[in-house]
Task: structure prediction
Amino acid sequence: MNRPVFKFCRDVIAQRSSSLNHGPGPMARRGAAAVETALVLPIFVLLILGTIEFSRALSVSQLLTTATRDNCRRAIIDGTTTASVIEQTRKQVRETIGPTVDTFVVTVWVDRPAAQNLIEKARPGDIVTIKAAIPISHVQYTPGEFLSSVTLRSQCSMTHE
Result:
C-alpha cells in the first residue's frame, strides 16, 4: 500500500473537517433563518388565505345550489306562491350561509309568458326556474379585494306538476 497517498488523503480530510468546524457559528445561521422566513412566510400566508377563501366560495356555491334546488321542488307543487318560494329560499340561504348575508337576489322565472313569472299562474308542464345570486364579497372571511368582483350564481329548473 502506498503510504504517502494515504497520508495525503488523511491530511486533506482533516483540513476540510477543521475548516467546517471553524466556519460561521450558529449566530450567523440565525440571521440566515430570519431572512429565509421573511421571504417565505408572506407567500405561505397568502397561499393559506387563498385556499381558505376559495374553499369558502365553493362551500357557499354548493349551499346556494342546494337552496335553489330545494325551493324549486317546492315551487313546482300546485298551490305554492311566488312570494313564499322567494322568502323560503332567502330564509334557507340565511340559515346555511350566515345571518349577516342580506344582499342576495332570488328570482323566479316561468317559461310561459302568460304566467308572468308567477308560480300561481303556472300550469302543469310549465318550466319553473329559481335563480339566486350573491356577491362573494358579502360572504368572504378575509377583508380586501380578493375575488371581490365575483358573483356566485345558482339556478334550478323543473317542470310544474
About this structure: The first helix runs from residue 3 to 21.
